[in-house]
Amino acid sequence: MYLIGASGHGKVILEIIEEENRTVAGLFDSNPEKKELSGYPVIGNLQQGEYPQNARFIISIGNNKTRKDHTERFDLLYTTAVHPKAAISRRCDVGEGTVIMAGVSVNSDSSIGKHVILNTNCSVDHDCIIEDFVHISPNACLAGNVTVGEGTHIGAGAVIIQGVNVGRWATIGAGAVVLKDVEDHAIVVGNPAKVIRHNH
Ligand SMILES: CC(=O)SCCNC(=O)CCNC(=O)[C@H](O)C(C)(C)COP(=O)(O)OP(=O)(O)OC[C@H]1O[C@@H](n2cnc3c(N)ncnc32)[C@H](O)[C@@H]1OP(=O)(O)O
Fold first, then answer.
1. Nearest-atom index, ligand 1, CA of 175
2. For residue 162, which phi and psi values (nearest 5 degrees)?
3. Ligand 1 atom 29 nearest Cα
4. DSSP 3-state assignment of 87?
5. What's one GO MF term for it (predicted)?
6. Where does the chain have alpha helices with state H?
7. If you measure from the C-alpha of residue 1 to the centroid of ligand 1, how many angstroms do you get, rounded to a whole number?
8. What angle do CA 18, 24, 26 make, to 5 degrees?
9. What's the distance, Cα to Cα, between the start and end of the chain in Å?
10. Domains plus CATH for the chain?
11. Considering only Cβ atoms within 10 Å of each terminal Cβ, which end of the chain, N or C, has fewer?
12. Is residue 198 flagged as an active site residue?
């Protein structure tokens, strides 16, 4: 298995994989000055075909758009990383490339898309739909029946009450309390959360 992105986020994923008793052969990164991360070799820039056939990858890059761009540029096989101290319902689907940090809870009948980040201690309650390339930051709390559209970033400690639909490529500020639906690309902050501008 290989990681793409030798960043702080990459370090956290490396430790999850260690906790799972799986091994990482190395990391790819476009910065030639990066030679190692947490004792693992940084091999260099990822070039199509310059890795073993059937190798599995995780894109360890926090930026949602950059993760999506990588999946469009490279034809790779992906795996997931799920910390053993995460509590994931057996009735929940988790898509390829997704990473789930320590202390995360996902409750019954929720669906987690591809290349999603469920960061430390966030909770996703029953019947939620989390689309591809979403990042739910540490300690964010999604009540039941919440949907989050592709590429949206939910900030640290944000709360989304039950039944809310958050659009695609939106940003929910740290600590926001979201009481009603959020349109595509909106950036919302505060309690109650209000739109301050839009992502381009
Ligand atoms: C492991 C990890 O590290 S995971 C990463 C977790 N990271 C996060 O949760 C970060 C989430 N990001 C934020 O909350 C950011 O502040 C954003 C994206 C909402 C806004 O960022 P920017 O576009 O740079 O906004 P900017 O800092 O210019 O602030 C604009 C206004 O909104 C206010 N504001 C910004 N963020 C928030 C917030 N979270 N809550 C309340 N008000 C906020 C600012 O005070 C400012 O108000 P003013 O115009 O009255 O002075």
1. 39
2. -60, 140
3. 196
4. strand
5. acyltransferase activity
6. 8-19, 64-73
7. 35
8. 135
9. 34
10. 2-78 (3.40.50.20), 81-198 (2.160.10.10)
11. C
12. no
